[in-house]
User: Fold N-acetylmuramoyl-L-alanine amidase from Thermosulfuriphilus ammonigenes.
Amino acid sequence: MFSRALVPLLALLFLLSLASGLQARRSEGPKEAYLKAKKALINFSKTKQVKKRHAWLKIIDNFRRVYLLYPESGYAPAALLMMGRCYEELYGYSGRRADLISAIKRYQVLVERYPRSRYADDALLYQARIYAYKLKRPDKARRILKELLRRYPRRDKAKEARKMLAALRASASKKSRSQKVTKSRTQKDKVRQTAKARKSTSAVKSTASKKPPAKSPSLPVGEVASLPLAKLPPEPVLLKGVRHWSSENYTRVVLDLADKVAFSAHLLRPDPRLGKPMRLYIDLRPALASAYVKEEIPIKNGLLKAVRVGQYRPKTVRVVLDLGSLSRYKVFYLEEPFRVVVDILGEGRPLVKAERPLPKSSGKGLSLAQQLGLTVRRVVIDPGHGGKDPGAIGPTGLKEKTVTLKVARLLRAKLRQKLGCEVIITRNRDIFLPLEQRTAIANTRGADLFVSIHTNASPRRRAYGVETYYLNFTTDEEAMRVAARENAVSQKSIGQLRRILKEIMLTAKVQESSRLATCIQKDLVSHLRSRYSRIKDHGVKQAPFFVLIGAQMPAVLVEISFISNPREERRLKSEKYLDSVAEGIARGIVRYVRETQMAYLQ
Ligand SMILES: [Zn+2]
Assistant:
């Protein structure tokens, strides 16, 4: 094992050593580089060299070079697929489990970075095969196959995935049958009981979350987390307004209501003969559309074409969203005030945009910043609160909204300098932004990371220290209190978020967010400690923050210090302290990006 201090250094050396070998040869484009790599593989496969590990690694390196030099080209995903295949081949000779893991990693990168690539379904299928037949993890294989069918139901590999899934299911039920026979009577009873329990919870779930009926297996999937019907008011509730944000590949629509309503979502296929696009409609009940809400809101902005609002039945308002495309949707609610949030992911352009090519290497290969930029191109920093919402207020009157904006600006400058990436802040002035709009900004701008900056506050004046959060449900009372304050809602309605999160978290980047939070927390604490005494490390925590719900990228919320603590409030007034805070967070982000890049390239 390397010592902790050595690891970042080794990471850096590794990246630099890559840079030296990464010059693009003149007049060589992605196609030439890829074909050359492939030709080398074909020639190699006919020689006795195939038994030699180092020879394989060289072949794999040819493809890696294509991916690193031309990440925007269509050859990058192809190169990743080839790397995966080569590692699998290598495993055939080496028998090393690590080679299989390397193959899986390449396939994962392909699916994650190039979800629209024609090879994405292949990458999922190959992963599933490794898990099922080589690593003996049929459970994991089944999950991946289901993902393949959900995301790429019409691709050519879907057919194979269905067959493989059926075979895995058959062998699983055979196994469990043979196990059951040998079980004792009491064990059998236990099995029956848990099965019963499972059945009853799933029954609760199906009434609580009304999923649209699956009309055909190829329709996109959505999650709907509505209110339990028993809690509804008897009189129709006014739909007061519709807000929306949209880009090529993402849309968020927020329906503002005067009180709680139930809702359901349904999908209508496009009908080219009638000139109708893909439509998602949301029924709100019991509800009444306000006269101030326009019946038709033309938008024509990226994914979202129009929003239409109508009184469908005396107590039902129907909101129809005309969409360019749709691959996945989520509908959930936030409270105080009550609003229904609709998140839609399109099938549009890939996440990696072709119009932003990698800066040309000037004979010296890729700079460190350029290489890091391969995984993180755009960071959104969110200074908490603003405008009519001052956030927490310190003993002498310092406002959280002022501190967070200062830190966000400092952090923006540091990240631009350290990573050379694009940095966007959600507000650059003292204005009010609803929490759901902040996430929408990050999603519509296609951010790779989202960092929300806040200061903590506690009724106990003595409380002080630093903590970093990512989105998840929690039973920790302190964390609940912090989330309730930041969400500007009562602690009671925080408790009700559990069910929403269960539905919504399915696609959240929980692990990546937790890793980002860990990097930031560690570096922030250690940097502050190198300059200030009495810096308390509260560690990484989880809590249901509105501002993180629905984020499509790793997302965290940093509580930089307690504004309610007299000593920390004094520090938060000093530019020097704020600069140290920004520096600590920036270092954490750089470390996260570097580690991500390492994982991609190892
Ligand atoms: Zn705050």
